[in-house]
TrEMBL record:
Name of one Pfam family that matches: Rad51
Organism: Arabidopsis thaliana x Arabidopsis arenosa
This protein's name: Meiotic recombination protein DMC1 homolog
GO BP, sorted A to Z: DNA recombinase assembly; DNA strand invasion; homologous chromosome pairing at meiosis; mitotic recombination; reciprocal meiotic recombination
CDD domains tied to this protein: DMC1 (cd19514)
Length: 331
């Protein structure tokens, strides 16, 4: 069943629904859960009246901002923030990549409330992982899934619904139901891409999403901004887009998986054969929580290396691209 969602006049999304997603698996933590943590129900009501409905949303407000709410003292705000942090920390989910070696490398899988960036050359498995995550995100949590829906913003025309079918079958899922739970949108300009994100946020507050895939984050910026003279403007607009992604990840407890392109690194030194670095510069480097470098390995294998992550060792893991998506490499 397809419907259309407008993010603004220009943006359209194909929207597909499925009712079976467990209602009791909260996607983000509602503010009334603070009561169980010993916060006065009257104070929770004050937060709701101020337009704050989730613990994740609450944590985006400064304490100064919160003490501006009538009836909330500094001591109360400290206690509320502490309780909200406890609730949110507990709710992070790790979504399996479909490959045990890759999951182990990532400390369990792709993490919600975080931005995971995969960069590398063409045909290294970045988009294949995106397609696999479209399925594994919908697995129940006891199968290392996210038990939620998928949003996919495609800037390069790489999404293939027929690719989802064999991956769903590998995991014993109904391909039709899996496709019904993927909201897909093709973005044509960087502004269109940004508008789609605004529309998605409204959707995510109503439905249980677990992942937002952007494939790729940088492509439209490289098309819409050309030449050195536009670089500062491009980086500013890219920063706005990334800040919107961070907000979505944290407020709705979704994983953001974005792919990125590589560019030649003239500063890479003469001793590195074919030096490459991720596009997007410092702006992108600071926004991504976890940065993964994908490259081709021996034969059919691909290698994923932790390039930068606060809580992961700089190790690497091999995987294979199979008919059923990303899987462990055969020895």
């Amino acid at each position: 069943m397809m419907a259309a969602l407008k993010a603004e006049e220009t943006s359209q999304m194909q929207l597909v629904e499925r009712e079976e997603i467990d209602e009791d698996e909260d996607l983000f933590e509602m503010i009334d859960k603070l009561v169980a943590q010993g916060i006065n129900a009257g104070d929770v009501k004050k937060l709701q009246d101020a337009g704050i409905h989730t613990c994740n949303g609450l944590m985006m407000h400064t304490k100064k901002n919160l003490t501006g709410i009538k009836g909330l003292s500094e001591a109360k705000v400290d206690k509320i923030c502490e309780a909200a942090e406890k609730i949110v920390r507990k709710s992070v989910v790790k979504i399996t990549t479909g490959c045990q070696a890759l999951d182990d490398l990532l400390g369990g899988g792709i993490e919600t409330s975080a931005i995971t960036e995969a960069f590398g050359e063409f045909r290294c498995g970045k988009t294949q992982l995106a397609h696999t995550l479209c399925v594994t995100t919908q697995l129940p949590t006891n199968m290392k899934g996210g038990n939620g829906k998928v949003a996919y913003i495609d800037t390069e025309g790489t999404f293939r619904p027929d690719r989802i079918v064999p991956i769903a079958e590998r995991f014993g899922m109904d391909p039709g139901a899996v496709l019904d739970n993927i909201i897909y949108a093709r973005a044509y300009t960087y502004e269109h891409q940004y508008n789609l994100l605004l529309g998605l946020a409204a959707k995510m507050s109503e439905e249980p999403f677990r992942i937002l895939i952007v494939d790729s984050i940088i492509a439209l910026f490289r098309v819409d901004f050309t030449g050195r003279g536009e670089l500062a403007d491009r980086q500013q607009k890219l920063a706005q887009m990334l800040s919107r992604l961070i907000k979505i990840a944290e407020e709705f407890n979704v994983a953001v998986y974005m792919t990125n392109q590589v560019i030649a690194d003239p500063g890479g030194g003469m001793f590195i054969s074919d030096p490459k670095k991720p596009a997007g510069g410092h702006v992108l480097a600071h926004a991504a929580t976890i940065r993964l470098l994908f490259r081709k390995g021996k034969g059919d294998t691909r290698v994923c290396k932790v390039y930068d992550a606060p809580n992961l060792a700089e190790a690497e893991a091999s995987f294979q691209i199979t008919q059923g998506g990303i899987a462990d490499a055969k020895d």
